[in-house]
Specification:
Layout lengths: L4 H10 L22 H10 L5 E4 L4 H5 L3 E3 L4 H12 L3 E5 L2 H11 L2 E4 L7 H4 L3 H10 L4 E4 L5 H6 L2 E2 L2 H9 L7 E5 L2 H10 L4 E4 L14 H9 L12 H17 L1
Parallel strand pairs: 1-2, 1-3, 3-4, 5-6, 5-7, 7-8
Helix pairs in contact: 4-5
Bound molecules: iron/sulfur cluster.
The site of iron/sulfur cluster has 12 residues, from helix 6.
Length: 256
């Protein structure tokens, strides 16, 4: 898995009999690191009866403490359905506080942030000034941002969605929609620039790079492929945790 640790853990949870390799074991997601099992248990104790909803960008151990997982595409739908099932008007939601805020805004269900300060440093650095500067430079640009951005940036933008939803928004754009201002990690902009050469893409601000995702190199990938028995690079979620973490993922699929 040439991504961050929670992606490799999720691959391990879903494929417990397979070997999952992370070419650079230091490739960790700082946002997932905002939430650990102790914090989840504390929130549960303080808010008995509320369902625990965790973003897939979370550790396996945190997933194991959860009732359901969600993605940035389906969080609104999942929160509506799980709160109905539990008969509550609120859920515990972590670890991204901006996704929690976005989900609460459009589901009408209170999303108690676990923790209040959880955020993705790539998306939360985007400011309204960035939005205004980008619009000034490219007034025709349609602004697409990720739900992990802050509310004032989301509210100003033309479209809020996951990276897949942003990609599809561009794919389905009409011939008069030429320019797009992109508010997410640079990788998506680069991919869309390749896939849609007839369109123009501008980052909403410079250096929107997740350095944690970029820690893998071709040399490291080549090494792990040639040394499959080197356990240093294997990510194996202990079976007891994997079995518990699988349930909220399956619950998400059931509710989707
Ligand atoms: S962009 Fe990087 S820090 Fe942000 S959620 Fe993804 S992996 Fe984590």
């Amino acid at each position: 898995v040439a991504g961050v640790d929670f992606m490799a853990e999720t691959a391990s949870i879903l494929n417990q009999e397979k070997h999952v390799l992370l070419p650079n074991p230091e490739s960790c997601c700082p946002m997932a690191a905002f939430l650990d099992t102790k914090k989840v248990k504390d929130y549960k104790r303080e808010n008995p009866g509320l369902p625990v909803v965790t973003y897939v960008n979370s550790t396996a151990a945190v997933k194991a403490e959860s009732d359901v997982c969600c993605t940035s595409s389906n969080s609104i739908n999942i929160v509506k359905k799980i709160s109905k099932e539990f008969g509550t008007k609120a859920v515990l939601f972590g670890p991204d506080s901006n996704l929690a805020d976005y989900t609460e805004q459009f589901s009408g269900i209170k999303c108690i942030k676990m923790p209040e300060e959880g955020h993705c440093y790539v998306h939360s650095q985007i400011t309204l000034d960035d939005y205004n500067s980008a619009k000034e430079a490219h007034p025709e640009g349609i602004v697409l941002v990720h739900p992990e951005c802050k509310r004032n940036v989301r509210d100003a933008s033309d479209f809020v969605g996951s990276t897949a939803q942003m990609y599809n928004r561009v794919k389905s754009s009409n011939s008069e929609e030429i320019e797009f201002i992109i508010g997410t990690e640079m990788g998506l902009l680069e991919r869309m620039a390749e896939d849609f050469p007839e369109k123009k893409f501008y980052p909403i601000r410079e250096k929107l790079i997740c350095y944690n995702m970029k820690k893998h190199t071709l040399e490291l990938i080549k090494y792990v492929l040639e040394n499959l028995d080197d356990k240093t690079y294997e990510v194996k979620v202990p079976q007891a945790i994997a079995n518990r973490a699988l349930k909220p993922i399956e619950k998400m699929l059931e509710l989707s």
